User: What shape does this take?
Amino acid sequence: MQQETAEKTALKALEWLAADPGLFEVFLGTTGACVADVTARAGDAQFLGAVLDFIMMDDAWVIGCCDAQGIGYEILSQARQSLPGGAVPNWT
Assistant: This one.
């Protein structure tokens, strides 16, 4: 996946996350970010990677986010791999 497409996918994931006040509060608490930080960094590829990392911590969140966007469940992982810090390690 191209980085531009990954960023668009992650932005949609952030929109989904922000639309759920309870889950968004968990995200803010987990990351230490505030709403102003989210607004300021929404275009930052590293921050968007962190958004995807957070959502991918729970299968129910992945399913909810992907279903809301009408995308396959594997897309968030593919997008994450295309953003900074998302390379899958090779352990061999």
User: Anything to note?
Assistant: The first helix runs from residue 3 to 18. The two ends are 24 Å apart (CA to CA).
